[in-house]
Design a protein that fits this description.
about 325 residues; alpha/beta; Rossmann fold; 3 domains; 13 helices; about 10% strand; binds guanosine-5'-diphosphate
Length: about 325
């Protein structure tokens, strides 16, 4: 059991930008223990006035495209050239790698990891996409309270995690590889449509091919309907490895912020995200609270037996289970 002063102490240390406190606070919000949840909500409540001030950038692309290499260069650039404090978070529910080694090990982002103004946190492992995304969202609030003003959220561009990650960020960057002839293969159209900027990576290997891919992607983007925020995504090319072209990406982020602040989309997007998360949280809490009750547990066990004994079909058993919950509410 944590001391009653735990929240106040952790919050004060967080506001001072203490990285150890930030790490501990994230562990608290990732905890699945019920008593930790109450504390986590209390801590997050204290963070509300300090939340929302950063730029949240989603970075996606297929495995091997160079996301971590890019993030290392980009993070260093933002810290050294723009005096930013940069936090790197990952949404990677598919990862089987153990905690602490996804982004933090020696082979990934080792230079960024040791910078005082950088904070790198791997994704919570062994969790569902919803669970990882919720804790990432809460981690963003904690990082903002600790003074981080750019949050980079890395996700693998293959599954459906982008749709969820989109709900966490202000700006969505898609890293792309180029290949002869099949430029538009390998990445889903929906993900391209979501992107606010495309970055053709590894241009150091073959400038000509990278340029022609950039042209093709640019043409492809023109075929998409214009976005409601009046933003036209650009296709850039460069190299995460040599830190080439990353300044142009930052220019795009700043330009995007300026444009969408002027046309009110920045705020509207954050509000729409808040609504989305409200639905997400309420669904989750509903399930969590109901499945914790004895009524649920007992009835579920009985219905499983009914199926086993061929008394009920799956549909009938599920309906009976829900009916028992509804009638327990009426009591
Ligand atoms: P991730 O899976 O998307 O995070 O990709 P990584 O950052 O781990 O990079 C995958 C491989 O591509 C590594 O061997 C990197 O060294 C290499 N790589 C990443 N960026 C570049 C680049 O800009 N140019 C070149 N030539 N190689 C790169």
């Amino acid at each position: 059991m944590k001391s009653p002063f735990y929240i106040v102490e952790t919050f004060d240390a967080l506001k001072q930008g203490n990285k150890a406190a930030l790490g501990k606070a994230i562990t608290l919000i990732e905890s699945t223990k019920y008593e930790d949840k109450e504390m986590a909500y209390a801590l997050l409540g204290k963070c509300v006035p300090y939340t929302g001030k950063s730029i949240r950038i989603g970075v996606t692309g297929v495995p091997g495209v160079g996301k971590s290499t890019f993030i290392e260069s980009f993070g260093k650039y933002l810290i050294e050239e723009h005096g930013k404090k940069v936090a790197v978070l990952a949404v990677d529910p598919s990862s089987q790698r153990s905690r602490g080694s996804i982004l933090g090990d020696k082979t990934r982002m080792n230079e960024l990891a040791v910078m005082p103004n950088a904070f790198i946190r791997p994704s919570a492992s062994g969790n569902s996409l919803g669970g990882v995304a919720r804790s990432t969202r809460e981690t963003i609030s904690l990082c903002e309270t600790a003074g981080y003003d750019v949050i980079l959220i890395e996700t693998v561009g293959v599954g459906q995690s982008e749709t969820t990650v989109k709900q966490l960020c202000d700006f969505f960057l898609l890293l792309m590889l180029y290949g002869a002839g099949d430029e538009l293969q390998g990445i889903k159209r929906g993900i391209m449509e979501m992107a606010d900027c495309l970055f053709i990576n590894k241009a150091d290997q073959n400038e000509l091919l990278a340029k022609s891919a950039a042209k093709e992607y640019s043409n492809a983007l023109h075929l998409f309907p214009p976005k409601e925020n009046n933003w036209y995504p650009k296709v850039l090319l460069g190299s995460g490895l040599n830190a080439r072209g990353i300044n142009k990406v930052w220019e795009q982020v700043e330009e995007y912020k300026k444009t969408t602040e002027e046309n009110q989309h920045w705020k509207a997007n954050r509000k729409a995200q808040e609504q989305w998360w409200f639905k997400e949280y309420s669904k989750h809490m509903l399930i969590e609270n109901i499945t914790r009750t004895e009524t649920w547990k007992e009835n579920k066990a009985d219905r499983i037996k009914d199926i086993e004994e061929e008394k009920l079909t799956a549909l009938e058993a599920a309906k009976a289970l829900l009916d028992s919950i509804s009638s327990s509410f009426k009591k």
